[in-house]
Specification:
The protein has nine helices and three strands; from the N terminus they run H-H-H-H-H-H-H-H-E-E-H-E. Helix 1 packs parallel to helix 6. The protein is mainly alpha-helical and 297 residues long. The protein is 70% helix and 10% strand. It has a three-stranded mixed β-sheet. The chain folds into two domains: 214 residues, Alpha-lytic protease prodomain-like; 75 residues, Cation efflux protein, cytoplasmic domain (Alpha-Beta Plaits, 2-Layer Sandwich), CATH 3.30.70.1350.
Length: 297
C-alpha cells in the first residue's frame, strides 16, 4: 500500500497546485468550463485527503468492538470519494454548464486560461503517469480491466481513474474553449463544462460499483477457493471440504471460514490437532489469510 500512497501524494500535490489557478483564471475570463475544472481539482484534492485518511484508519489494531480490525474503513472512504466525484464534481460541473448555456457570457481574452490549462495538463499528466506505473506493479500480468475488477485495493485504481478523468476533461475544455472564443459561440464553453461533468459521473459509477462490492463483503476468487479446497483435502484427517466462506477485511487481510467433514474415527484431540495443522498450512500458503475459522461437520 506504500506504492499507492506515492500515487496519492503526487495527485494531491498536482490538484492542490492547479485548483486555485483555475478558479482565478475562470473568474477573470468568465469561463464556465474553467470554473468547472477548478471544482474538479478541488474535489480531487479532497478525495486524496480522504483516501489517505481511510488508509490510516484501516491500519488501526483490532479491539473489542472490531475484533477483525478496521480494514473496511478504506472501502468506506473509497465509496465516499466516488459519491463526492458524482455529486460535487459531476453534478456541479453539469449545473454550471447548463447555467452558462442558458445565460451565455462572451469570454474575455482566454490567454491565461490556456496557460493554466497547459500547466494543469503537465501536472495532471505527470500524476497520471506515476499512478499508472504504480498500478502496473500490482497487475501481475492481468489485463487492465481484469486487474481493476479483481483488485481488492480501491486506492490503487481510484487515483488512475481520477487522473485519467482530469486529463480527458482538460483536453475537452481546451478544444471547446478555443472553439468558443474563435467562433464567438459562448455556449460551447457551457457544453465543455457539461462534458467534464458527464466524464466525472461515468468515473464515479465505476468507482462506486467496485467500492460497494468490497464494502458488502467480497470474497476470494473462485480459483483461489478451489486451490484451498484441494490443499485442505490433502490432509489425511479430512474426508472433504463441504463449504468455504470468505471476505476481504482489507486489501491485505482475508477472513476464511471452512466447514470440513473429518474422518469418523478421530477423537476430539485428533480433530483439534488437524484443525491447527490445516490452519497453519493455509496461512503459510496464503499470507493474506489472517483469520482461519474451521468448523468440523
Amino acid at each position: 500500500m506504500a506504492n499507492n500512497r506515492k500515487s496519492i501524494y503526487s495527485a494531491l500535490a498536482a490538484n492542490l497546485l492547479i485548483a486555485l489557478t483555475k478558479f482565478i483564471a475562470g473568474t477573470f475570463t468568465n469561463s464556465s468550463s474553467m470554473i468547472s475544472e477548478g471544482i474538479h481539482s478541488t474535489v480531487d484534492t479532497v478525495n486524496q485527503l480522504l483516501l489517505l485518511y481511510g488508509i490510516k484508519r484501516s491500519k488501526k489494531a483490532p479491539d473489542e468492538l472490531h475484533p477483525f480490525g478496521y480494514g473496511k474503513e478504506l472501502y468506506f472512504w473509497s465509496f465516499v470519494v466516488s459519491i463526492l466525484i458524482f455529486g460535487l464534481g459531476g453534478g456541479l460541473s453539469i449545473y454550471q454548464g447548463i447555467l452558462h448555456i442558458k445565460e451565455p457570457e462572451i469570454m474575455k481574452d482566454p490567454f491565461w486560461n490556456y496557460i493554466v490549462l497547459v500547466l494543469s495538463l503537465i501536472f495532471e499528466g505527470t500524476s497520471l503517469i506515476i499512478s499508472l506505473k504504480e498500478f502496473n506493479k500490482t497487475r501481475n500480468g492481468l489485463e487492465w480491466w481484469d486487474s481493476i475488477i479483481k483488485s481488492k485495493d480501491p486506492s490503487s485504481f481510484l487515483v488512475v481513474f481520477e487522473d485519467g478523468a482530469a486529463v480527458a476533461g482538460l483536453i475537452v475544455v481546451m478544444i471547446l474553449m478555443g472553439m468558443s472564443h474563435y467562433f464567438q459561440i459562448p455556449e460551447l464553453d457551457g457544453v465543455a463544462s457539461i462534458i467534464v461533468g458527464l466524464i466525472l459521473v461515468f468515473v464515479s459509477f465505476i468507482l462506486a460499483r467496485e467500492s460497494r462490492s468490497l464494502l458488502m463483503g467480497e470474497g476470494i476468487a473462485p480459483e483461489t477457493r478451489e486451490k484451498i479446497k484441494k490443499l485442505v483435502e490433502k490432509d489425511a484427517a479430512v474426508i472433504r471440504t463441504k463449504s468455504i466462506l470468505s471476505t476481504y477485511q482489507s486489501p491485505e487481510e482475508v477472513v476464511l471460514m471452512l466447514i470440513i467433514d473429518f474422518e469418523d474415527h478421530l477423537d476430539t484431540e485428533e480433530i483439534t490437532q488437524a484443525i491447527l495443522r490445516i490452519r497453519g498450512t493455509i496461512k503459510n500458503e496464503y499470507p493474506l489469510v489472517h483469520f482461519v475459522i474451521i468448523q468440523p461437520e
